[in-house]
Amino acid sequence: MSASVIDARTAHAAGVQRLLASYRAVPATSSVRLAKRTSNLFRTRAKADAAGLDTSGLTHVISVDPEARTADVAGMCTYEDLVDATLPFGLVPLVVPQLKTITLGGAVTGLGIESTSFRNGLPHESVLEMDILTGAGEVVTASRGDGEHGENADLFRAFPNSYGTLGYAVRLRIELEPVEPFVALTHVRFHDLGELVAAMGRIVATGEHEGERVDFLDGVVFSADEGYLCLGRRTAASGPVSDYTGQQVYYRSMQHDDGAKRDRLTVHDYLWRWDADWFWCSAAFGAQQPLVRRLWPRRLRRSSSYARLMRLERRYGIGDRLERVKGRPPRERVIQDVEVPIERTAEFLDWFLANVPIEPIWLCPLQLRGDDAWPLYPLEPHRTYVNVGFWSTVPVGATEGETNRLIEREVSALDGHKSLYSDAFYSRDEFDALYGGDAYRSAKARFDPDSRLLDLYAKAVQRR
Q1: pLDDT reading at 118 higher than 80
Q2: What pLDDT is attached to residue 254?
Q3: pLDDT, tens only, 95-112
Q4: Under a CB-based contact definition with an 8 Å cutoff, are residues 167 and 134 in contact?
Q5: Is the pLDDT of residue 150 over 70?
Q6: Is residue 260's pLDDT more than 90?
Q7: Distance between CA atoms of 59 and 75, rounded to whole angstroms?
Q8: What is the pLDDT at residue 147?
Q9: Which domain holds residue 37?
Q10: Between the N and C ends of the chain, which has fewer C-beta atoms within 10 Å?
Q11: Is residue 334 part of a domain?
Q12: pLDDT at residue 321 greater than cutoff 90
């Protein structure tokens, strides 16, 4: 074992001890939460009543095993730092979520997705074992094991989609996969969304398009008659590459009239192709206007910068003030990702475009890797779903969250699920039926018997 690995493990052990000390310092009558400088959650929250736990020693990669293709990673390590540690070995996590500041622990407890999810599932499926600080103040190891015989297998299976209400991952051992230095891209234009979804289904089933292997798959819908599938193929062949951290904007680059359009990125830039403009949300800050973009420092052209600006806007209500000046009503925030079975996706897109004035829309197909049950987000194994992402605002309706509630009802009617990183409006009974109520309560009673951590419904819907 190298000295650097020994040093990293020693530092990690010290970080765990600081975390435990900070937990013990929280009064027994106060709720427990993490102290985080960044967040990729978009729920409105009440002000916390306790100091956050010290996670300062849990932000690094502990070790990478290139032969076993695994990595031991601290729970608060960002994917940006994780990729920087694994890519020199020609390896990356099986699923790398789109934004650099998403943490590995956050993607597992809160779910994550990306363009490898049609073949690699979701981030928690490539976790081999985890050390988790439970609500009881103990660090326990949870693993997949064999069937129900893994170490704390009930916690391992209930952890995904628990959003820190059962505990916090302090170390995760994950699988890695090999990559090539470049990604060759093909953007395929569709004038009919039904045809786009059908083509997506064929690629998921075969792993190829028109005889060419597909390693990465997602898509963008601009309107009912303009949609694109974005196909990526790993390649070692050298050649010119595009750069979307400068003046060019990635999602605009895929637009063309008919047929297919080719492009090429380094694998590093492909993994972070959405981060430079926060998908397309940087437009809200003028960052896609050529003059503003030239003046905007390149180091600040990233999702974390836009997120800070958004938090400032929300704190001071700047957007609603501007709407009042223009004589318009306030805006309802509709920032959501939903999973819809692929056979109902075209139906959902038609409904959405007719009822919700938001575009573009992101599409990302997924299929669970195996037969495992994940009770708090019960997608069916061997069934293809499409993640539909839409992030904007609409005029407020007559009731709180009117558009979000409409979307929730439509998604449920189509046998889909909604991610819980943003505002939700379900009743308690609806929530329990959708998000593993009995399994959650059983894990909660065992690993957080004194309810030191928030309840999932309180955190996701009541926004405490």
Answers
A1: yes
A2: 97
A3: 999 999 999 999 999 999
A4: yes
A5: no
A6: yes
A7: 7
A8: 46
A9: 3-179
A10: N
A11: no
A12: no
Residue 132 near residue 162 (C-beta atoms within 8 A): no
Specify whether the CB–CB gap between 389 and 99 falls below 8 A: no
The DSSP string of 262-315 is: EEEEEHHHHHTTTGGGTTTGGGGGTTTSHHHHHHS-GGG-SHHHHHHHHHHHHH
pLDDT for 85 beyond 50 = yes
Q: CA–CA separation, 234 vs 184, rounded Å?
A: 6
Residue 262 domain flag = no
Task: Give the tokens for residue 442.
Answer: 């059983």
The answer to whether 127 and 142 are in contact (CB under 8 A) is: no
Beta strand 167-178 pairing with 127-134:
antiparallel
DSSP characters over 203-231: HHHHSEETTEE-SEEEEEEEETTEEEEEE
CATH number where 12 lies: 3.30.465.10
Contact by Cβ (8 Å): 137, 131: no
**Longest pairwise C-alpha distance within the chain:** 67
pLDDT of residue 314: 79
Amino acid at 71: A
In angstroms and rounded to an integer, the radius of gyration of the C-alpha atoms of the chain is 22
| 72 within a domain of the structure (yes/no) | yes
CA separation for the pair 109, 78 (Å, rounded): 14
- CA 372 from chain centre, in angstroms, equals 20
* Residue 301, both tokens: 């052209």
Q: Rounded to an integer, what distance in angstroms lies between the CA atom of residue 172 and that of residue 237? A: 34
Q: How far apart are CA 159 and CA 352, in angstroms?
A: 31
Q: Tell me, what's the pLDDT at 197?
A: 98
- Strand blocks (E) in 284-397: 331-341, 361-366, 385-395
Number of domains in the chain: 1
